[in-house]
């Protein structure tokens, strides 16, 4: 059984069915790329705006379909937001320490925390002064995403869901973030689900599995050859092949995705 198991997942929001029977499995040590909806990321973390009408989500052998967001996070499931929220007055370092303590029975010691933070900063090639700044306050798009990757390094999740982490990044910021994800995967055995509308991040992070979501269902799965096909043929050919309608179809920049 995979660490993260999604079975026959149907999801509605505002009275509209967005996901129509999604099956997906992700385990530690694997990198999955999903060209599809951010709805899945929000549902996985228990966003109240998304109602599961059918199917189930299991994580590390436990059913989390109805679990609260903090319970999912404490279990080892991490979400990197598309639009991270700024928290003025709270430094990156203090936020990280509070987040770590929320997962522990006993607070982390100062010496242990500093050592762990120093290792994460070195691993991700982040300027040490970055951790003293207020979380996401005045950050560029690349800095916000870098802060998310730093959280992943410190919280040591089993599986991380990256919700359009490549959105709004220039090529240099994209490379930095992608390399950070790859390093965490290589060092920690992190399982990763990258949800994206574009293929450019996959030039820097090599997925083991690629899934195409159209019309609320996964219609095509495979390895890197799927990415190559997308770049060669685009989504229209796949949409025609599988009879997927425009509603829920994912194209570059599709605002409904």
The coarse overall form would be globular
* CATH-level-4 superfamily name: P-loop containing nucleotide triphosphate hydrolases
Output the number of helix runs. Answer: 7
* pLDDT averaged residue by residue: 88
How do the helices and strands follow one another from N- to C-terminus? EEEHEEHEEHHEHEHEEEH
Account of the protein in words:
By secondary structure, the protein is of the alpha/beta class. The chain has one domain (4-221): P-loop containing nucleotide triphosphate hydrolases (Rossmann fold, 3-Layer(aba) Sandwich). Helix content is 36%, strand content 27%. It contains seven helices and twelve strands. It has helices at 38-44, 69-75, 92-102, 110-124, 141-155, 171-188, 224-242, and strands spanning 4-13, 16-26, 31-35, 51-59, 62-63, 77-80, 87-91, 134-135, 159-163, 191-195, 209-214, 217-222. The strands form three sheets. The protein has a six-stranded mixed beta sheet with strand order 6-9-10-3-11-12. The chain has a four-stranded antiparallel beta sheet with strand order 2-1-4-5, covered by helices on one side. β1 and β2 (16-26) form a beta hairpin. The longest helix has 19 residues, at 224-242. The relative contact order is 0.17. The model is unreliable at 246-257 (pLDDT under 50).
